[in-house]
Design goal:
Length: 511
Amino acid sequence: MKLLAVTARSATFSTGYGSAYFAPMPFNVKLNGELVREREEHNVFSLFSLMPDTEYELDTGGSKLKFKTESETLFLNVKDFGAAGDGVRNDAPSFSAAIACAEEGSTVYVPAGDYLLTPVFLKSGITLWLDGGARLLGEIDRTEYPVLPGICGEGDARRNFGTWQGEEANCFASVLTAINCKNIAIIGEGTVDGNALSSDWYQNHRVMRIAWRPRGLFFNRCSGVLVQGITVRDTPSWNVHPYFCKNVKLYNLGLYNVPSMPTTDGIDPDCCENVDIAGVNISVGDDCIAIKSGTLELARRYKTPCKNITVTDCLMESGHGGVVFGSESSGGIENVLVERCLFRGTERGFRIKTRRGRGRVGEISGVTFRNIVMNDVVTPFVINMYYNMGDQTGHTEYVWTTEKLPVDELTPIVGDFEFCDMVCTGVCCCAGAFYGLPEEPIKRIKLKNVSFSYNKNCAPSFPDMKEKNSTVKNGGLYFQFTDRVELENVAFCGADGEEIVCEGVGSVQRR
């Protein structure tokens, strides 16, 4: 048993079980001898309504753990500041008043109710507690939202507040927004509801109208961020977006968007360092988790990779991809561990989206997946260095050609990857497609103790989004322009045709 996070009013724990997302058997949870939860099913779980500065002993039947909650300076209820909680009146001024009055170490409490909000800005050193039944509803009129400028000032006074898809750009502030904050927490069993289905956010979604769409939660250049327990749903774009942040913890969240809603990713760590994602359930309209580091212009300016990212004990369901890298990845992505996760019904499991033009300021490398279960994932593994979506440059011959071009500052680098102890059932398209560039091959792919079984009742489909593509059904592993392939105890049950197909591969070891 491990304590992942503790506040004055909450705590998150990891059982340490080796299973993916769900515990092997349900267990009861006691605090100081009192039963507080029956038949807990998850490897990672959180408890709320704890008392500040109090010692507890956690008992799950199999193990015990002593811990102490943090102290609390003030406890402020937004209702005392005039919040109506009726879903009609704008309660943002009341929330802002409570936050302004909160001293460092304070908790701002939101009881059950529907709170209509225009964006609320957090500040350092406070905890926002959304109790069960509390629902924050985003205002549906975009003209009521403040705009975060992409660029303000010049020289040493130049600042970046807004962003959109890897660039410094004007965007609307989000329902909950934090800029340059330290040691902040959003906790509880309440919901942040972007209310996007009741608005026009998805109409002409590729066109900027006043500013680009807000997220559900947006953190810009913050450090010491904890988001624990809450649900974030129906957001105008991404659910949770940490941007140039450090030391971020995202635990036991529920992130949901309608599958047909565009660019509604779950979690997008963007140019961040030390991000821990655990016990999160994601079902969205785009990628479940998309790790990013900006387009080339942003990468050249800030030279900030996204690094030290862990994703453990998560459930990823509806989504274009489970854990995705890019497509805005020019700053590099380094040192990523994905462990004990369950993927169910995503179009792809692991996926890299990049192409010529993303550049070589940084590389994507040092990625490990282990102890993973993928059920009914169309294509479990994809590395695509010919990704054609986004702006029109993705459809040019420069991007799609498999002729060897000169290596220059626009050539992306894709490095080293390991996939171990994985079970993939219900594969439809193919087990994996790894498309490197002839001038810059993928450096190394290792699969160890990985099995694939197939869904025979599906239709042929494309492994990924690229020009000059062909549909596949029940295919094996395809490697194109890869320096080194290592396969150990990789098994196929029901693949059509060759299990391993290589083109332009330096070396293949299979045992």
